[in-house]
Structures are given as structure tokens and as C-alpha cells.
Write a structure and sequence with these properties.
homodimer, 296 residues, alpha/beta, nine-stranded mixed β-sheet, 14 helices, 52% helix, 14% strand
Amino acid sequence: MTADKATVAFLGTGLMGAPMARNLLKAGHAVRAWNRTRAKADALAAEGAQVFAAAAEAAAGADVVITMVSDGPAVLDLLFAQGVAEAAPEGAVLCDMSSIKPKEAREIAERLSAAGRLALDAPVSGGTKGAEAGSLAIMAGGTQEAFDKAAPVLSAMGRPVKVGPSGAGQLAKLCNQAIVASTIGVVAEAMLLAREGGADPAAIRQALKGGFADGTILQQHGERMTTGDFAPGGPSKLQLKDIDNTLEEAAAHGLTLPMTLSMQERFGRFVRDLDGAEKDHSGLWLELLDQNGLEG
Amino acid sequence: MTADKATVAFLGTGLMGAPMARNLLKAGHAVRAWNRTRAKADALAAEGAQVFAAAAEAAAGADVVITMVSDGPAVLDLLFAQGVAEAAPEGAVLCDMSSIKPKEAREIAERLSAAGRLALDAPVSGGTKGAEAGSLAIMAGGTQEAFDKAAPVLSAMGRPVKVGPSGAGQLAKLCNQAIVASTIGVVAEAMLLAREGGADPAAIRQALKGGFADGTILQQHGERMTTGDFAPGGPSKLQLKDIDNTLEEAAAHGLTLPMTLSMQERFGRFVRDLDGAEKDHSGLWLELLDQNGLEG
């Protein structure tokens, strides 16, 4: 690994992973790709990636091994059952960019440390758009050594910030998701009050621009509430999973988070009773309408 | 009134009103100023304002009469008991930029319309900083005629957007305040989870910049929670008043707003039981700590 060109194993080249790997290639890094459904990794070969049939093969010789898969068990399986941790060189950084539980990230870090590998949990925010643009928010938890080694690679995909020790990256992601969930809830209340009070919700969003209440949720999710477009985006079943994980982590620290708790109940109702599982999380609007006996 | 230079009566030149009137003067409008405590209006004389002892005198000959006072009863008193509505020329726009209840704004508009005057409710967001910079968000409710007549004047103080008929400007302001209140609540939960989970809250705010969870509340109010600086800013007793008004307006439309309702209870507890009345609204953090048996 030179100062700025690394050999990177990229494990999990799905909706998010593929554009992220593509940005690594554009930045001049060598990419060794693997995906459970191999065809998705093969698509990257034309752009210069080397594709492997086994995850452990991809990890061999890598300076940084990135995992980008569905959940904690999938990361644990790759690293320890499929032999990725062992196959990676000693001193390599195993950087998990999936969204998993903080306690899983801490467990992974302990096991990797015992095996002489560096661990970094570095989940992202910004969606497929951010992945394509290379503008992801990257929330990193781990040692300074692991962060410093991975940062030049991460910078090709977005903006890495070290937020604390192992697990803190996943904790930051949960903070992000908890804020998003509750902000959707209150934007829905504002849009409903606007509509029923005889004002123009779109004009109100315009008027509030740049003020204390403004943000992406008001502008983008608020617009979805007005137009009734709930194609995901961020499906509500995943929003609910994030809320569950937030409250599990909070409970582990003895914390009560009343707003997040109430969003767990309401997203739960939306997902289970109101056919909301696959609808965008801005669809919580429909749950608020239902509470109020109103239609969309 | 020429296309862009108007005669403006400015009634209420306090903390917000004075810098707003100053921007009218800078833009070349003639300003006829009045304030209950006259000394505050006198301070504007050096900058070209004409100062009057009675509000009705200031209103005489004005194209646009702006009221910027504490609440609905104060506006009603000025317009109808102190004779401002009658003193203003027929066809003048009486533009109330105070934050009052939507139903008060609708009542004022009806009475002004009956008297042959135009009404606009146009409350603002952005605080004294926005007032000084001339960058206020101005949420306007009223007829198109009233808006079109007042807009060139309002533009000297900020960015006017027509959001609906009379009362809609005040409704938009309540939407703004409701979003702010609940966003403070959830940012507090995220900052608490970050702190107790061993991450660095300041680094998390940095990492979340530009993402879905980002906004002024996360950055500014979130920082106050970390540093413990609760000098207002926006005092919690006023935040509570806004929440009360939001729920009163919601009830008038038969609406249930669960998050705003829970913020009423919690800001109420903070103001009444936890010495929070004069503390900044970001001080809701202290209420969350108290719920969790924790210290600042």
C-alpha cells in the first residue's frame, strides 16, 4: 500500500456496495470484489475489479477489507465462518460498513484484535445517491491506528469522521436513524396541521427554508406526504429495525428515550397493521392520518 | 407609494422591530415609528425615522402599517382601541408581523376587511440575527392583493412567502415552532445515547452533517446540550406558549398531534418543575436527563 493507493477487498457489492466499489476504482485503488450472488460482482470486472468466488480469496493480500452486507450475523459469518479474518494479512484493517448493532461491532472488534487484525465499524448515511456521488457520511468507530489506515480508502467513498472507539460508528448511525424517524413524525404533524388549517403545505415548506425547522426531512419527506408518493426510498420495516436496535442499545446503557419509544410503537403499527412494511418511512404520514380518522 | 419606495408605519420597535425598521430605512422606505416605550423608537430617529407619540399618528398616510408586538391582544388593542386601523388610509395594508394565534389573525382580517383595509398576517422566523441581516423567513397569510402590496416592503426585511389565506401565516409559524420543539426532543435523545454509549457527541454532529438527520437544531442546540449553555436564545416558556397555541389550533380542526402533545407535557414539566422557564428551549435536555436520573 502506497500513501494513497491501496489494495481493497470489497465484500458485498449490492445496491450500495457496487457504486462504493466503483468509486474506489476511480480513485485508483486495486479492488478485489466478492458478492454472494456472483453476477453482481462480475459487473464490476469491466471497470477493473478482480472478482473472486470465495470471500476469503478476495481478502488475501488486501490492505483494507470492506464488508457491506445486510446485518451483524452476515458480517460475523463472512469474517469468522468463511475465513475472511484469517485470510486477511496481519495488520490489515477489517472495515465493516454495514449497519449492524453496536454490540455486534464491539464483539467483532474484540475477536479481530485477538487475531492481530485491526477493526473499524464505519456505517454510512446518504443512500444510493450518496454512494454514487462518493459523498456518503461515514461514521467510524475504532482505534486511531485503524482509522488512519482506512481513511484514505474511505475518503474515495465519502467523508469519514472518527466518532469514538469500536461500536461508536454504529452508535452514531443509530443516532442518525432515531433523529430521522422522529423528525418524520413531527413533519407529518406540521403538514397535517397546515393542510387541515387551510394553508398550502408546499408553500409552508418553501417559507420555512433556511430556518430552524428546515431540513431534508421537511423538504423531501414532507413533499412525499403532500403528493402521496411512498415508493421506497427507505422502507418502513428497516426504519423499524433501526428503532428496535436504538432502543436495545439504549436499554443496555439503562436509558429511557421517550420519543424513540413512541416511534417504535407507531412504526410498528404502520408496518404490522397498516400495510406499511414496504412503504417509504415518510409513509408514517398514513399512520397519523389513520389516528385522526382521515384519508390521504 | 412608488413601485419600490413606500411609506411604512412601524409599530413596536423592540428587540426584533428595531433592526427590521432599520432595514426598511436602508432600503429607502420612509419609516414612521412608534413604540410603547418611546425611547426605543427615538433611537431610530438618527437613522431617518420619524417618531410619533401615538400609534394612530404614525399610521396616518402609511401605505403599509406593520405591527410587531407581544401577542394577539396587543395587536387588537393597537388596531382597534388605539385607532390605528381607522387612522390608516383606506386601501392600506395592515401587516401584523407579531406571533399571535391563527384565529386572532383571522378575526383581525375580518374586522379590517369590513373597515376597507387590507390585512396580512406575516410572522417571522430567524430571531434577532435574521432581523439584523434582513434574512427573516416571512410567512404570509392573506389576499393576493394584500400580499402584492406589502411584498416590496417585506422583502427589505427577509424572504416573504404567501402560504395561504388570512391566518395561514400564523399557522405556518406554529408548524415551524412545533417542528423545532420536537426536533429538540429527539436531538436530546441522540446526544444522550451518544454520550452514554461512549461516543463523542461533537464528532457525531460533525459526522451527521449534510445527511438526513442534519439541521440547525442538531448543530446549534445539540452543541448547547454538550456544553451546558442554556442562556436564551429562545426561552422555554415561549416555546411552551407556542406549543399550547399549536394544540389549540389543532383542536379547533379536530386534530390529534401526538408528538406535539407529548412535548407540551415535557416542556410544561421543564418550565414548572425544573426551573426551565427562562432557560433556552435546548434545555429540554435537562428534562431528559432528569427522566433518566442523570446529571448534566
